[in-house]
Amino acid sequence: MQLHFFPSRTLTVYLAKMFVTRILAVLVMLVLVLMMLDLLSKSGDILVVPGNGQGELFTYVSLRLPQLVARFLPYSVLLATLIMLVGLNQNSEVIAMKAAGLSAHQVLAPLFLTAGVIAVLSFAFNERVVTRANATLSAWEAVDYGPIPADSGVRANVYLADGNNVLTAGAVAGTGPTTAMRQVTWYRRTDDGMIVEQIRAPQATYANPGWRLEDAQRFTVQNAGTTEVPAIVVGQDLTPQQVELARVDPEAQSFWQLSQSIDRYEEAGRRTSELRARWWHKMSGPLAALLMPLLGSVAAFGLARSGQLFVRALIGMALGFAYFVIDNAALAMGNFGGYPPFLAAWAPFLLFVLIGETVLIRTEE
Q1: What pTM was computed for the model?
Q2: b vs e for 177-210, b when ≥16 Cβ sit within 10 Å of the residue's Cβ?
């Protein structure tokens, strides 16, 4: 019996290379198929905009691919684990390793090491690439795939209340006095919530105080008439700081940016449980890759000729997908305040670590 957690260097490199190649193969297959299906559903909306063509389709693909890679990387690790371990079992390689004195944890150690590296790379990829792609794609969708806003800090679908009145914007860019809005709509309402006037404008800028809507159209409910308004100032009590706090998209902000947004929300006395849960999940989410070899390990052991290998693979797949279901459910409960933010983000991971270890120890150790 070896006393080291990892097997020999040769065996560690052999298993790690095999694991990485299968993860990449599964990930490429999933992303290509899903990207083609998604592009088929969105290409009509993109090409209907005058001036859009093949270049805009490639732009959409470049923004959507990071999202798909980040979302389906843990699934790829799970499927790669099952494919690899089933193959090793069928070729009696697992039996040979156990006959050499390796425990089940030592057999899986190279997979844990590889998955840990993938989890770190996944976190960095999310922080540097995925958040920026999410922000740009959300802003592009907010303007119906028109000209892409150049500001990387664009926020989409902003809703602001000014007493009874409401100001909405499809996209907001900039900070402080330089804040600018696009696809703006102003609703003037009575005390009982009835809309009496609606003003639409392609853009709005901060007028200090208020927001200047240019080239606007005013619709009056009383006479159902529409008039052109060259410029008008609305929302006298709305400040750029309120606009910045109006909508924070956790998926479009990095870990440190979201920390600052949470601090600003807390200073303003706003509820932060949803943002805090997403903040914790930015750390626990990438660690799902580290969990997959443990949940799929049930497929590595047991005699291949016993007829139970397929059942073991199904059990490993069921455990992996059960984790994703419970993780999403817990995060949703955290968003609604049903769970504390830390528990919503970390409880599924810790729960399935215990489940995976229990299954592995009770069946193989």
Answers
A1: 0.75
A2: eebbbbbbbbbbbeeeeeeeebbbbebbbbbeeb
